[in-house]
Amino acid sequence: MWLRTSCELSFYIAVPTPFILMLRPRSNAQQWVAKEEYKISPHVLVYEHTDGYSNLYQRLIAPEGAFSIRTSADVKVVDQLDQTPGAPFVEVQNLPDQVLSYLLPSRYCESDRFNEMAIEITNGKAPGYDQVASIEKWLCKRILYTPGESNFAISAVEVNQRQSGVCRDLAHLGIALCRSLSIPARLVVGYLYDLKPMDLHAWFEAYVGDRWYTFDAVHQGARAGYVAVGYGRDAADVAVFNQFGPSVFPTVQTVRVEKIDEFI
Amino acid sequence: MWLRTSCELSFYIAVPTPFILMLRPRSNAQQWVAKEEYKISPHVLVYEHTDGYSNLYQRLIAPEGAFSIRTSADVKVVDQLDQTPGAPFVEVQNLPDQVLSYLLPSRYCESDRFNEMAIEITNGKAPGYDQVASIEKWLCKRILYTPGESNFAISAVEVNQRQSGVCRDLAHLGIALCRSLSIPARLVVGYLYDLKPMDLHAWFEAYVGDRWYTFDAVHQGARAGYVAVGYGRDAADVAVFNQFGPSVFPTVQTVRVEKIDEFI
Amino acid sequence: MWLRTSCELSFYIAVPTPFILMLRPRSNAQQWVAKEEYKISPHVLVYEHTDGYSNLYQRLIAPEGAFSIRTSADVKVVDQLDQTPGAPFVEVQNLPDQVLSYLLPSRYCESDRFNEMAIEITNGKAPGYDQVASIEKWLCKRILYTPGESNFAISAVEVNQRQSGVCRDLAHLGIALCRSLSIPARLVVGYLYDLKPMDLHAWFEAYVGDRWYTFDAVHQGARAGYVAVGYGRDAADVAVFNQFGPSVFPTVQTVRVEKIDEFI
Amino acid sequence: MWLRTSCELSFYIAVPTPFILMLRPRSNAQQWVAKEEYKISPHVLVYEHTDGYSNLYQRLIAPEGAFSIRTSADVKVVDQLDQTPGAPFVEVQNLPDQVLSYLLPSRYCESDRFNEMAIEITNGKAPGYDQVASIEKWLCKRILYTPGESNFAISAVEVNQRQSGVCRDLAHLGIALCRSLSIPARLVVGYLYDLKPMDLHAWFEAYVGDRWYTFDAVHQGARAGYVAVGYGRDAADVAVFNQFGPSVFPTVQTVRVEKIDEFI
């Protein structure tokens, strides 16, 4: 399946403001970026680097006045992401080194507080994929998905208290539950085809069997139409934009995902 | 100054248990490890790796029964760690890339919640080193240091509510306050000569001017006798030991730091 | 200046053949990639990764039959790359760690064999930038530039014997001479506006003062119109394509670089 | 088996000279460093870092006059390194990313020049481990091992012309032959118990099956008593000491390896 994603952010900037942006998808085994645009108006000097999670990020100083960023990408994604019920739990001693940090608690995923709850939710499930699938199902049934109502992130403990949240919040709770069972889990930020209402999306991946698998408490069981832009331990690591100094919110934020014919 | 540090941990292990240990100090500009021992009884297969913060860590599976780890090191440390009152705040756009992640909130340092408080504490101070020094002083005066009373970490928000904590807790609050002012800050775990009561210690570093500086809310202004073992965003990243499965606590934990003559 | 670069490679593949490609330019302080296309026909599964030099590379298996790759990019480049005559030599002990490996000899740059020659060429020049500039000038005068006559790389020693070579060969000799003076130097592969005959290009960078500077023995003193695609110790690290198994050469290789109006 | 290794280097330094040393063994699955000493006389400021191959290296400036380095380590090594005749060749597309760079030619291993020769040597052998074993055997029979006769490295092409060399030279030729068959190979520098005459040693590893295996043209088939200190593409990457400025050679170089009782 070929998708065209686009994201437009417009700001009004009062004082020159440093930004760190994460808006450039990378090609990997699940997605191939065949075409891409990244426009900054007015154009300023940008530095691009790779962070510890292999995300590309852009650093710039937004000048005073109207400032906008428009990105788009034509991406071939796999028609159906893999699901492997029964994929086994990997004992900690057998996890690859680069996966270990995804076992640790993080800002929005206080996994050290969820062990009992996770055991209860996954009761009777085979360790590994099936546990994560039961967590995803539980989130879907028990935590109310309230899109579009959040300006800043809350942590898994808070999500669990409120019993509701945006996609990112549900993902954080899912991650905290997985890690509390010693299953590595990470946040993914990106696009989802046919998401309603359309917006940037967040979901999570868990490491079972011998690889990462995609889970999404908002679209339980659906496994198609995802374009990943960033990976990290939680939303603290994967912000589409991080801005420093006086708070600035986009005056316009437009996100689109369309199917396109095979890229010619 | 030459120091001999030692740490002995003894456990009784009920079922084979994976551990990740961080007990091997590394040489750097502040310290030179001239001699080192690391004994594991009974000896088991150990894998050693370097994490994303350049810490060496050891992975092993502790077998059933008595299990102990004894480490010691002869280390030359600088006589006096640098202090540079007046060292300026570095604007975000000028920070080196590898320092950026220390601006983000983390599990035990919810820096996104402390901006107002940090502004108040540092009121009237020049941006940079002097702000951090005033945070260190504030912690020292306002947060009661209660050594030895903690089995698991609490976060900066909780430390601030309780108004007391162990060295690690004070450091976490210091880090959260620094980051809320866009000053990169990180946790350091290691040894401190003449600490009373003697134990493993934790303190923090802040990036101002063009480098990291040491701060310690427990020993405000003191800048000598530190041996660092691990660095990270907070205690989630730098645990002396992380153990998976049923909880295990050391039956014995002995820490010593002595002055020695120049290493012969 | 805005440039549109494009490169098309067509192959006829006899047996399925693994390729490693390096054809995706990255944004950095000298260039901003505002638009990019990367088409593979027929489309096959591609993995993209970052190597130890921060280059993006693509791994794929080319299927039997006609196989082609077409890339293009719209890139804003600085109007004039910096030149800083007089920028000083950096003593080895003061070089940043990540620069040290560019002091070592490598496959095509046997810097351990060029010390006397380098001293002679740079005689009377101030250590640092001026030495490198005199090496660039010497290469330009003494080594005949023979574009398009090379199918595989030769080393600096061989280039020096032949007294002629393609752009990559001249760059290799320049790098070997710099390193023999303890000046870190690296190869850059990419595009150059107005290169005649148009082709992919290679040049070199040297680390003096406190940063990398661009040098090009083919276009001595010219410092405009460069788009970098890959960096490495020499051509062994930065091949536009590396192919394994029976040798395959492109049946068509088309390279274009045009000026475009500011990207809209 | 427990081994105590030691290496002493003494220099007479005429002008302050920057050194990069690689003398600190690291623990890994094959070896556990239980005790270690690293003495520098006179003691100077040392920086320690990790290079791109995970080696620890030390940077310092040797002062004028007598300068010495004494290191020793008590290391538990596996009794017998694994040998797996029949372990299969890994097709390039299936190699892990971090292994790819060991396929490329390097300063002392011009693997691009050895394909025909490698095919001839390994004629009739199953692709993979058995090919490498036949290369090791060929080296042992055909290239005369002449310990202690080399002050600076020669490349695989030169070793093949001379038909003789030190351990490092034989390893370089082995590596070049492996890579020319698309088998990743790397140099290891360290200690070997019972080596005669005793000295620092160099051997090589090849990646077949799903891991690195040890080969040694000097001690064909022997697989015990190895302590690794550094890994790299070839001797350019793994020098026990690299010194810059006017050449300096050790006035004394003493290497010892003894068996010890289990470390208490």
Automatic annotation (TrEMBL), chains A, B, C, D:
Top-rank taxon = Bacteria
- Transglutaminase-like domain: from which residue to which, for each copy? 159-219
Give the protein name, as stated in the record: Transglutaminase family protein
